[in-house]
Design brief:
The structure is a single chain. This protein is mainly alpha-helical. It has one domain. 67% of the residues lie in helices and 5% in strands. It has 6 helices and 2 strands; from the N terminus they run βαααααβα. It has helices spanning 18-29, 31-40, 42-45, 48-74, 83-98, 108-116; strands at 9-11, 102-104. It has a two-stranded antiparallel ribbon with strand order 1-2.
Length: 117
């Protein structure tokens, strides 16, 4: 249907440590950098919760950057004014990760899940 709302799949896993929640939230604040750091720190690389959020945030950041650049070029720069809204979206996802939620975004979540397995 045309009026259907797209839902983000979400679950709250039990037993997620505060450290894993913090690392997962930081993935949305510094997406690409944190993916690299997660792979450099041995015990974080083994944590599937952290690794999932690292991949999801990085893939989302790349997709958002590409879309933002296209919109900015098409609108002759005016689309760049909406870029601060992306920061709020990423901060919201960081908040959800800090609460311990493992939420899968429609396309990038599935891709991130494949990287973790």
């Amino acid at each position: 249907m045309a009026g259907e709302k797209m839902e983000i799949k979400s679950s709250t896993p039990s037993g997620v440590s505060d450290d894993a929640k913090l690392w997962s939230a930081l993935n949305y604040v510094f997406p690409i950098l944190m993916l690299i750091v997660v792979y450099l720190v041995e015990d974080k690389k083994k944590d599937k919760f952290i690794l999932f959020h690292a991949w999801q945030s990085t893939l989302l950041a790349i997709a958002a950057w590409v879309v933002a650049m296209i919109i900015t070029v098409v609108t002759l720069g005016f689309g760049g004014l909406c870029t601060p809204l992306l920061i709020l979206v990423f901060l919201y996802f960081a908040y959800r990760a800090y609460k311990g939620e493992k939420f899968m975004l429609p396309v990038v979540g599935e891709m991130a899940q494949k990287q973790v397995k």
